[in-house]
Fold this sequence. Notes:
alpha/beta, Rossmann fold, 2 domains
Amino acid sequence: TVSLARQLKIPVLFRSIDVLHMMVPYPFLRPVTKLMEKRVYSSVDLVIPNTPQYLKYIASMGVPETRIKLLPFPMDTEMFRPGVDSSEVRQKWGLKENEPVIVFVGTLFDFSGLDEFITNLPKVLNEIPSAKLLIVGDGVQRPKLERIVNELGLEKHVIITGFQPYQTMPEYINLATICINTFLVSEDTMDTFPSKIVQYVACGKATVATALRGISVLLPGESHGIVYCQSPAEMVPEVIALLKSPERRQRLGEVGVSAVRDMFSNDKIAQELETILQKAIKEKHK
């Protein structure tokens, strides 16, 4: 396909939204996937990462910076917004209106960090006995998480929904008291960009997350609605503090919504993409 595009003078662009080899669930396949990733990057006309950290990562794979163009993650702020009615999903999972709910959305990778967070969840329950953890997603780590839940007797406090339709994500996020991202921080995960965090913030939800460089360079802390910690275990005191402070949650939610609308709106990103495409076409026909 790339060869034919070159013959026809059609630019080939690759949109990079993840450190792709780290998304492979089987570690022994990751080195091979990384080689394939590098080959794709070297063969296209332009690679378009969605964070500054991915830009650096792609450059480290041998791609000249003249063939890399940063374009942030687009956010449908009409879909992901505060105030979406979540009564249907709340009823579906038996969640009462006044129960504090901690929400995690996404694939349960082996580096999700939820195992460490659930192990420490009793500390949250000691302070807020009615709290619930709602995990909206599925993946290779689910059996391990279910085993920890059973061993600790947390069946009444942890719900794993499995994958749910994408269009219902604003409903799940809006029922949250706070949202979390627990990804383990390592050299392999440091540059990942969990888009769920942008969705949380766009819905006006105070968020506690591990300090992944891939997201923190764009949304650098409480001024953007997020409290960062170094590990899932270290998140627990911040989760407790936020569950006890509606005023702080509201403040984080308000500043977060404003920041996301300025940085990630669909219209803004679409205009930038159109400029990139027009330039790529002109370069190809010089």
